[in-house]
Amino acid sequence: MLTPEQFVAHWADTRLKETASCVTHFDDLYELLGHPKPAHMDKTGEKFAYQAAWMIRSRQRQLDDAFTPLGLAGSMYLLNGRQYHGTAGGRRVDAYFYRGPTLDIYLGTPLKTRLGIGTKDTVGQAVAGLMNRRSIALDDPSLRHLSVFPLDEAWSRALLADPTARAALLRLTADEGPFELRQVILQPESLLLRLHHTRQSNVTPENMRQWFNDLLTVARAAEGLPPPQQTAEASGLEHTTRSNRNALLLPALGIAFALLCGLSLCALVPIAMILLSGGR
């Protein structure tokens, strides 16, 4: 059995890369704890998966490297995602990276109106239908590949006419790769950049800084305009989705547990009836 002193002495000065040392490190850790090594207990790899654990840890480190330079604190989101919260540039910032992969970045703003911008596709049209908005026609050739769904059309056109804001929006909505879909969504009290089907390798410190700066540019340009005439208030769900998505998990788990209990009860009732009838 490996002693704590032996474990520390063996690993204190190692210079191996993580990919070359992770299996040996875990084996030594199991030996230190007196636990059978995974290869001895699970010869099929169904219960123990070094590679999966290493991939989750590697994803965490890469994402942390992109977000923590902005002063955001990271933590786990769902099983293998990450979430980040904090203040950057004097603004509240909340971000979520989760299955899809999808990246949501929220930037705080005092604006209280709605505007959706994305590339023209069936997903964008479907979202517009849910929002009960219709895309407006754009005369600017550089914007004709975009669908724009405003609550206040005149105010939104003024924002798109601003050269600085327009250039930032074009960068933010520039899809990378054949499957990535991007949306910029202004909702009451926040400006959201959503990257659907993005590659994790795109989430670099340089890209994160550029996305943040572009969101900040759009927010400042929008706030510099006369206030929109058509306004809206953020819903409680929007507040929670932005700042504390974990609060949505407990009710969902409760519903799932209730459904499971209900299904179990439904399965037991016929059995009980058979037993009761058999005893007569």
Q: Could you give a quick summary of the protein structure above?
A:
This protein is α+β, with helices and mostly antiparallel strands and 280 residues long. It has ten helices and eight strands. The chain folds into two domains: 45 residues, no CATH class; 171 residues, no CATH class.
Question: What can you see in these coordinates?
Answer:
The chain is an alpha+beta fold. The chain has two domains: 45 residues, no CATH class; 171 residues, no CATH class. An eight-stranded antiparallel β-sheet has the order 1-2-3-4-8-7-5-6, with helices on both faces.
User: What's the total count of β strands?
Assistant: 8
Q: Low-confidence parts, pLDDT < 50 over ≥5 residues?
A: none
Distance between the termini: 62 Å
Strand-and-helix sequence, N→C?
A: HHHHEEEEEHEHHEEHHH
Largest sheet: 8 strands, antiparallel
Strand content: 15-25%
Strand order of the largest sheet: 1-2-3-4-8-7-5-6
What class, by secondary structure content?
Answer: alpha+beta
Mean pLDDT: 82
Into how many domains do the coordinates divide?
2
Rounded radius of gyration (Å): 25 Å
Backbone shape? elongated
Number of helices: 10
Helix proportion of residues, in percent? 40-55%
Distinctive features:
2 domains; 280 residues; 19% strand; alpha+beta
